[in-house]
Amino acid sequence: MQTSKFRNILSLLFCIVLITVLLSCGKDAAGEASTDKFLKCKLNGKAYNFNYNVNANDKPSEKEIHFVTISGWEKEDMITGFGIGLVVPNEGAKETTYSVAGSLSPELDGDYFIQNMKDGKIISTTVYSGGRSSETSFTLTITSLTKWGVKGTFSGKLKLSGGNTFINVTEGEFSAPYN
């Protein structure tokens, strides 16, 4: 009888440990399912992580994917963020490299944005864009396009909207699940 009680206690402890391990591995600090989701790059040589709420567009409803969007925020306050948008209307997005430098094709843009706050309210947004804007460039390499989401690398030269200040984007990487 003592052996049976001992086995029951060990079984219960094993189940508790197993559940704890599974739950802790399955969630990140924000309580979201953890996978390898991230969005990071260097802006003018300084490393940034836009890992809060990283996601791609909604899961495609068709076999051919006509657009890819990726975005993330630096912090939960959602003041600074980075986004990438690609539209491929005819042939669909593929695992390949897309580049644009101040022309209209392909429809590819990278954006670094900063929400300007006053008294706890957003009063404006500062945006640096690159790709189809003049004097800019943007390169996106899609390395994986699956049912889970999209992964890849990026780089470019972004220009302040309405200004003449530039930001160089280097060592960009992302892994973003579909919404």
Q: How many domains is the backbone divided into?
A: 1
Low-confidence stretches: 3-34
Look at the helices and sheets and give the structural class. mainly beta
**How many DSSP-defined strands?**
11
The backbone outline, from C-alpha atoms, is globular
Protein name: DUF5025 domain-containing protein
Organism: Pedobacter jejuensis
List the defining traits of the structure above:
179 residues, 1 helix, 14% helix, 11 strands, mainly beta, eleven-stranded antiparallel sheet, disordered N terminus
Could you explain the architecture of this structure?
This is DUF5025 domain-containing protein. It comes from Pedobacter jejuensis. By secondary structure, this protein is mainly beta. The chain has one domain (35-177). It contains 1 helix and 11 strands, in the order H-E-E-E-E-E-E-E-E-E-E-E. The protein has one helix at 2-26, and strands at residues 38-43, 46-49, 52-56, 67-73, 80-87, 97-100, 107-118, 121-130, 137-145, 149-160, 166-177. Residues 3-34 have low confidence and may be disordered.
